[in-house]
Design goal:
It is a single chain. The protein has about 425 residues and is mainly alpha-helical. The protein is about 35% helix and about 5% strand. The strands form 4 sheets. The protein has a two-stranded antiparallel sheet with strand order 1-2. It has a two-stranded parallel sheet with strand order 3-8. The chain is globular, with a radius of gyration of 20 Å. The structure holds copper (II) ion.
């Protein structure tokens, strides 16, 4: 069955550059300008309406400006907000122990917030479980990722939708759980030399994210702030009730469900997310959004490699107590809250690429239909098949993310809807 999507094929960066020269630039600029300059002056003014978990962007750092102001970045249209004091997202290990503890505690708070009856299933991902009303607001976020899985991976939604999703998560931590710091990111490039024993894996009950599980306990972690031995452990409810599960997996490609998308099934996963691999994406593909995304999303690239090496929940494998109907796949991957710190690092890569060259800043293209069933399909449509997306496309929300937010709203992390940078 479907191992839904992490990303795809590995071609080396140089061959990618050859395969996808900057042809995308011209097409993209045509698309974008038409999409932006027509349409939708309503995006900003209505963006605060209908917010469920994100009453947000009205944080202290965002102020109202004249509607006639021209918003910087990719959307030359009336703006209602400006970003004057951006939040700085920092690497996990640069936080103090007290800062780490406040973040870990806020995540646990998220896991105690009630399920929202606004959550609705709108996606096309087949064979997923029904909504579980006896779950938490955190589980609701996991469910959105389950339900939209086939739309948001290996399509043009990938980078912008996950940026939007992380923003909602961060705002909920702040608005509902009293968190005052920035969303931290996990820079896994620091951990590739000895991933199993890397410093990210900290067993401290107050300020550690925990370590690894073992087979005897279905890989559920016991230590750290979220583990089962903590006085206030963190539990998930999809696809079944369980604690966070982690299973170090050195060679995840050996039994990979889509072997035709691999170039070397024996590869060690920690070779896929080295600094050199990140640089091979971020430092290249000028103006070539398609090439950049593909290099980063390939199964043997940085995004997927981290998911697969942590194993279990972050890979999306079914817990031992899951119903027989459970289909493994990246659908479940936000069950490990490390997902959000991992994806903040993925988002930082896009941010770094966008800010490296003016031609990258507003570069965007992509289809909306995932094409992973053969190498030929993937090679033709690594960012999905038509209907194509544009900067004017509106994010799917499943009823709990902020409504009427467009891709253009997240192109600039300091554009007003968003207000953050990376350290
Ligand atoms: Cu995802």
């Amino acid at each position: 069955m479907r191992f839904a999507t992490l990303l795809s094929v590995v071609l080396c960066a140089t061959s990618l550059a050859a395969a996808f020269p900057s042809a995308g630039i011209l097409a993209r600029q045509d698309d974008d300008t038409s999409a932006d300059t027509t349409a939708d002056t309503s995006a900003d003014t209505s963006a605060d309406d209908g917010t469920v978990s994100d009453s947000s962007a009205s944080s202290a750092s965002v102020s109202t400006t004249s509607v006639s102001a021209i918003r910087p970045g990719c959307a030359p249209q009336a703006a209602t907000r400006a970003c004057t004091n951006p939040t700085v997202r920092k690497e996990w290990r640069t936080l103090s122990n007290a800062q780490k503890q406040s973040f870990l505690t806020a995540v646990k708070c998220y896991g105690t917030l009630p399920h929202s009856s606004s959550l609705v299933k709108t996606g096309s991902t087949p064979d997923i479980p029904p909504i579980n009303p006896a779950s938490s607001a955190y589980d609701d976020m996991v469910y959105v990722h389950i339900d939209l899985n086939h739309q948001i991976h290996s399509t043009g939604w990938f980078f912008p939708w996950h940026r939007f999703y992380l923003h909602t998560y961060e705002q909920t931590l702040k608005n509902k759980c009293g968190y005052t710091g920035p969303l931290p990111y996990w820079d896994w490039t620091q951990d590739t030399a000895n991933f199993l024993n890397a410093s990210i894996w900290d067993s401290n009950h107050n300020h550690g994210v925990g370590t690894w599980g073992t087979a005897t306990n279905d890989y559920q972690i016991t230590d750290g702030a979220w583990g089962t031995a903590n006085p206030s452990p963190f539990y998930l409810n999809y696809p079944s009730h369980h604690a966070i599960r982690r299973n170090f997996t050195l060679q995840p490609y050996l039994n990979f469900p889509r072997p035709y998308l691999l170039t070397n099934s024996a590869q060690y996963a920690n070779e896929t997310f080295t600094q050199a691999m990140v640089d091979a994406s971020v430092q290249h593909y000028t103006g070539d959004y398609k090439g950049f995304q593909k290099s980063f999303q390939d199964y043997q690239g940085p995004h997927a490699g981290v998911h697969l090496m942590v194993g279990a929940d972050l890979t999306g494998l079914c817990p031992g107590n899951a119903p027989a109907s459970c289909i493994p796949g990246e659908t479940w991957s936000p069950n490990d809250p490390l997902f959000f710190m991992h994806h903040a690092r993925v988002d930082k890569a896009w941010y770094d690429w966008q800010n490296r060259n003016a031609a990258n800043k507003c570069a965007f293209e992509g289809g909306s239909v995932q094409m992973l069933d053969s190498l030929a399909d993937y090679d033709e449509y690594p960012l999905g098949a038509p209907p194509n997306l544009s900067l004017n496309s509106v994010f799917p929300t499943d009823g709990i993310l902020q409504s009427n937010v467009h891709i253009q709203d997240v192109m600039d992390t300091k554009g007003g809807y968003l207000c953050y940078t990376y350290q």
